[in-house]
């Protein structure tokens, strides 16, 4: 799956960022993901592999576009 976020930081190729969303209990679940886009792109893009039973990827897969 590909995830794009609003630009809020600068990065160089090879960097990663911790992305997170709240779980059902309200606690944030974070995972480090590599940045797949070029530094000049207007929205950083991340690639996340869906893993059966994975906490963050499973939650991300259920989110609607534009969340």
Sum up the structure in keywords:
two-stranded antiparallel ribbon; 67 residues; single chain; alpha+beta; 4 strands
Layout of SSEs?
Elements: E1 2-4, E2 16-22, E3 28-34, E4 45-47, H1 55-62
Antiparallel strand pairs: 1-4, 2-3
What does this molecule look like?
It is a single chain. A two-stranded antiparallel sheet has the order 1-4. It contains one helix and four strands, in the order ββββα. It has one helix spanning 55-62; strands at residues 2-4, 16-22, 28-34, 45-47.
Brief rundown of the structure:
This protein is α+β, with helices and mostly antiparallel strands and 67 residues long.
The arrangement of helices and strands along the chain is EEEEH
Average pLDDT rating: 81
Termini separation: 14 Å
Radius of gyration: 12 Å
Cα shape = elongated
Low-confidence stretches: none
Total strands: the figure is 4
Largest sheet data? 2 strands, antiparallel
Q: How much helicity do the residues have?
A: 10-25%
**Approximate strand percentage:** 25-35%
Count, helices: 1
Class from secondary-structure proportions: alpha+beta
Strands in their spatial order, largest beta sheet: 1-4
